[in-house]
Amino acid sequence: MSELFDAVDALVASRSPLPSAEERKRLRQAHGLTLDEVAAALKVRRATVSAWESTKKPTEPRGPEREAYARLLKQLAELYPAPQERTAPVPATFTGTSEPAEAGTLSAPPAPEAAAVTDHENTQAPTPVTSAPAAAPRPARTTRPASTSRRPGARKAAPAATPAGSADPRFENGPLAVVDVEDGKAVAYCTGGLVLDVPAKSLPSLVDWTLKEAKLGQPKLSGPGKDADPLLVLTEAALERYGLPATLTEQDRVAGRIPEGHKAIKQLTRAQWQLTKRGFGPWARIYRPAQGSERACVQLCIPSWNALDTRHWGAAGRLAPAELARVLGVYASRVMTPRGSTAVTGLELMTALHPPTRATAPDEHGKRTSEHNPGSLGKDPIDPMDWPPCEVPDGHPVLKDLPRFHVRGPDEKLFEESFDWARTLTDAECTLRHLVGLDVNLAFGAGANGLTVGLGAPTHVKAPAFDPKLPGSWLVDLSHVDLSRVKAGKEWVELDGSLLPSPFTPKGERPEGPAWYVTPTVAYAVELGYEVRPLEAWVRYENGRYLDGWYTRLRDAYLATMADLGVDADLSPADFLAAMDGYKDRDPQLAILVSAIKATVKGGIGKLRERPRGEGWRPGEPWRALSRPTWRPDIRAAVISRTRINLHRKIVKHAAFTGQYPVAVNHDCVVYAVDGESPLDFLPYREGKPLPGGFKLGINPGLVKHEGTQTVLWGEEVRDRFDAPELNLARYIKDGTVTDVDHGE
Question: Which H or E run contains 299?
Fold first, then answer.
């Protein structure tokens, strides 16, 4: 009979409907499964599983694969039931004014340029960027009646084009609030223009009010993750009300916190609240130890203590409370609730999307326990003494036995950094009129997209065969790669190698012997047509595309915000250049947001190799950052390598097709000497289509925009003025201002 029952079950499964493509993807991600893992389990191709989850044109599995897939989805649905009436808040469309936008949606952006980001087989279609209809404006300062005696009073501020809270009733007033004082009373400006009366008269009572009555916070970004803690931004008036200094003294600024004996901290201690080891600084966290799954934690942001770094947040710290709530609220809805600097938030976003642990299936007693979440970096850091010496920065504990003044060379240390290369102009280039700069959009994000990185500790291998699919660090001699003759695609091309930077060193110099490189760099040498023979390697057999979700969320945030500023992803090259002209002036507040998103990408990658930050550290001793699982210099090196290689590939394609060579490259900016003033004057577009694999104008990550144009005479004059024949002009091409020689340190 069991065989008959099995046959009946199979028959039912072969005809029963499957969940929607969106639900299939949600269930897979909730369990921390990658496309590769599902494909391996079902014995199908990765692209097949991706097609089953495609929101554009999903395909349906058939045969035994369908039965197995249905069984997988059924089990996952039992573990992660679909939330009822619960969706993450979606930002409303901005119109470039302070008035609410009309109802509508943003068009979904086309996929980023596949050739520049990842190979075609591994390219995933981007998630469409959508926007919920904006709420109709209500009269300013109207009162919303409280539902209970404990509910804070609420009133409406001047209309703002941000969502008024979350669909989750626990966080109906949004992720954050800016606390100010008006007419002697404390008020909290929330997203969507909502203003709450704040009855709290002390700092401990403010924390209590936030957790018990304010209904602030944000739903988790991943199934096994945690909801975001509420964020309070305190104005100078609020600081005065709650007994905190309006600004930090020089001593406190250097320490990054107010003294532990401050009366406000004593108040918190008496109320049994605690601070993290960072103390009470610009991004203080006030908490009590979690009771089971219940968290009690409030994040503070204090702009007048320089919490919002002007390099990344511009004038945000000087905005009016309602305007600041708008900017931070949209950032929270599109990226995440800020947890610190943009760099800290970029790193926290990685963890929020790949939580280190998840709950197991219930045992026979219905009890769940915690286990490692596949695809994450886990909850435990790599032991400092297990790190490959080649991957760590100077002063790391694993290098403590090196002589004190020893300088490591390329055969001892990874030098995977961004380009900083320039050359003198040729005689022919000196007869041209202009220098035109191109800048790669969200370059490090594009470098992270589709990148396979190590998830666990490395394994040391002697004389390995190079595997381009295996992340790791390889000691190999690439000095034989001759840029005068390389493969561009499948064809060998002849180039002037003296006019090209080497892709194997940040300064563009040809390597002179064995050196350490990460996988993308060595793979590019093979792509150029040359054999490689590594001497040794540190490889990571446990690996995955850890940064894909991180990239996708930041890409969508960037594209949605640029669309709000009038720069859409489907513009023609000429229209794109026109739309980029003065886009920041259309809504200065959203322009701040663009800068913050870009800083989140770059800072998050940089934070993967955080250096010591004082605190009495001495070389050879561990520092605070080493204690977290996200201290991963190998992942940082891989992203930077991929970004540098992506740019070099475009440079080679362009040179092979046009005979034009760059005169300077700085990070993600490349400069050419040409006759015209616009990128359209020298980029080889044919009937609106760009050179395949070359530079393409557009707003998607990996595509390029116009960075700036200066005259050739300007370039020669500044080089003469500073007696620097190879001054990197890409560093100054944007506005032409050069006050001193910048050596890029």
Answer: strand 294-301
Burial of 661 (0-12, 13-18, 19+ CB in 10 A): buried
**Residue 739 above 70 pLDDT?**
yes
The residue-averaged pLDDT of 624-640 equals 97
Separation between Cα atoms, residue 165 and residue 218, nearest integer Å: 9
The count of other CB atoms within 10 Å of the CB of residue 363 is 9
User: What are the helix (H) ranges across 244-357?
Assistant: 250-255, 263-270, 310-313, 321-334, 342-353
DSSP one-letter code for 126: P
Task: Give the pLDDT band of residue 14 (cuts 50, 70, 90).
Answer: low
Query: Measured between alpha carbons, how far apart are the two ends of the chain, in Å?
Result: 76
List Cβ neighbours of 268 (8 Å cut-off, separation of 6 or more).
203, 204, 207, 274, 275, 286
| Rounded Cα distance, 57 and 60, in Å | 10
Q: Which residue has the tokens 């305190």?
A: 234
Tokens read off for 149: 């005696």
Tokens of residue 575, six digits: 């229209």
Range list of H helices, 608-736 = 633-658, 712-721
Cβ(514)–Cβ(476) under 8 Å? yes
- Decide if 252 contacts 280 (C-beta within 8 A): no
Q: Give me the residue label for tokens 């808040």.
A: 89
Question: Rounded distance, CA 267 to CA 202, Å?
Answer: 8
Is 54:25 a contact under the CB 8 Å cutoff?
A: no
| Residue whose pair of structure tokens reads 């032409």 in the numeric block | 736
Band of residue 10 on the pLDDT scale cut at 50, 70, 90: low
**Angle at alpha carbon of residue 488, lines to 482 and 491, rounded to 5°:** 100
Q: Can you tell me the distance from the alpha carbon of 321 to that of 179, in angstroms, rounded to the nearest whole number? A: 8
- The radius of gyration computed from the CA coordinates of the chain, to the nearest angstrom, equals 27
Residue 694 exposure: Cα atoms within 13 Å on the Cβ side: 20
Long-range contacts of 733-738 (CB under 8 A, 24+ apart): 733/435, 733/436, 733/437, 733/664, 733/669, 733/671, 733/707, 733/708, 733/709, 734/437, 734/707, 734/708, 735/708, 736/708, 736/710
- Global pTM? 0.79
Cβ atoms of residues 434 and 710 within 8 Å: yes
Do 120 and 162 form a contact (C-beta atoms < 8 A)?
A: no
Strand partners, 201: none
Confidence of residue 66 (pLDDT cuts 50, 70, 90): confident
For the chain, how many residues are written?
Answer: 745
Alpha-carbon span 408 to 390, nearest angstrom = 9
